[in-house]
Amino acid sequence: MITFFRTKTDLRTYNSSKKMNLYILVIIGTTLLLSNCSSSSDNMESINNDPTPVNIVKTPPFHGTIFLDPDIVTSSDPSTFEKTSYVGQEIRTMFDRRVNDWVEENAFLFETVFSDGFIIEIQVNPEFQTKELAQIEAEKYGLEIGRLPHILKTSVETVWIHKGVQPFGGGNKNILIHTGQSIEYEKDGILEETLIHEASHTSLDETHARSNGWLSSQTSDGNYISTYARDNPVREDIAETFLVYLAVAYRSDKISESLKNTIETTVPNRIIYFKNQSFNVSPIE
Ligand SMILES: [Zn+2]
Fold first, then answer.
1. In sequence order, what DSSP letters do the residues of the chain get, joined into one string?
2. Between residues 55 and 207, which one has the greater pLDDT?
3. What is the distance in A from the centroid of ligand 1 to the CA of 129?
4. Distance 1 CA to ligand 1 centre (A)
5. Looking at the predicted structure, is the pLDDT value of residue 266 above 60?
6. What is the pLDDT of residues 159-195, one digit of tens each?
7. Minimal CA–CA distance to 176: which of 114, 234, 94?
8. 100: which strand partners?
9. What distance in angstroms lies between residue 201's CA and the mean position of ligand 1's atoms?
10. 22/210: higher pLDDT
């Protein structure tokens, strides 16, 4: 199973803020409390095949981007979520970070429909005990996933929901959610930002992370937006940068001028790269 995971899938994480990952950065005179995203705690993240390009000599301004500003997307933003319908219990193979492995569960299944045409199967771990309690989770995260930009839903076919305080994940045509961790993200106001990061893995990495245009943008910028992206330039740079692209392109009124300037001066070519893709980001406008 682990070999399959390493070779066939691409699950990425941010670690819990409880996992020794609080850092204080002083950036342009502003102190920001950030939680680092580690890559060393599980099988998927332990292999780093991403050498840092030798021409990169500048220091990234941030450790990780999901912590930069909780207002990029919030629970007040519109959602394309329409409904989620219980369709029964069936065995599904899911990844569960609590055991750091694939598990087979008789999951509660919910067909979840979005007004922009997407239908996603939300698979809820039977540990939630009843279909009514599972449905509460499916509705909660269906609503949140409906806030994702259209482009980020294009490859999401399933969602796994487990209990536990474990990092979320993207890839596998899936978004992995641990509800205990979600509460931590919600306290910090970054549930939406985290889902954007993870769905960027699911829907953007395959096409863009190794594309010539992206690689040349990395070279032209000569820096990374975060140390997490710098240390994992193929695996994390798209996800780390797409969120800040959204912030400067669509939410510049919600972020500080200094944050906007830092983003625009650190990764200007990547911002142009994303703009040139003409992504559909509805319902974000
Ligand atoms: Zn990631």
1. -HHHHHHH--------TTTT-EEEEEETTEEEEEE---SSSSTTTS----PPPTT--SPPSBS-STTS-TTSS-TTS---EEEEEEEEEEEEEEEETTTTEEEEEEEEEEEEEETTS-EEEEEE-GGG-SHHHHHHHHHHHHHHHTTS-HHHHTT--EEEEE-SS---EEETTEEEEEHHHHHHHHHHT-HHHHHHHHHHHHHTHHHHTT-HHHHHHHHHH-S-SBHHHHHSTTTTHHHHHHHHHHHHHH-TTTS-HHHHHHHHHHSHHHHHHHHHTT---TT--
2. 207
3. 30
4. 21
5. yes
6. 999 999 999 999 999 999 999 999 999 999 999 999 9
7. 94
8. none
9. 7
10. 210
**Alpha carbon of 197 to ligand 1 centroid (Å):** 6
Neighbours of 88 (CB within 10 A): 10
Amino acid at 62: F
Q: How many DSSP H helices and E strands does the chain contain?
A: 11, 8
Tell whether the model's pLDDT for residue 231 goes beyond 90.
Answer: yes
Q: How far is the CA of 187 from the centre of ligand 1 (A)?
A: 20
- Whether the pTM exceeds 0.90: the reply is no
- Verify cis geometry, omega within 30 degrees of 0, for the bond prior to 283: yes
Range with lowest mean pLDDT among 54-68, 103-117, 200-214: 54-68
177 with 162: CB under 8 angstroms?
yes
What is the spatial distance between Cα 256 and Cα 210, in angstroms, rounded to a whole number? Answer: 31
**Whole-number Å distance between alpha carbons of 228 and 232:** 6
Q: Show me where the domains of the chain are located.
A: 81-203
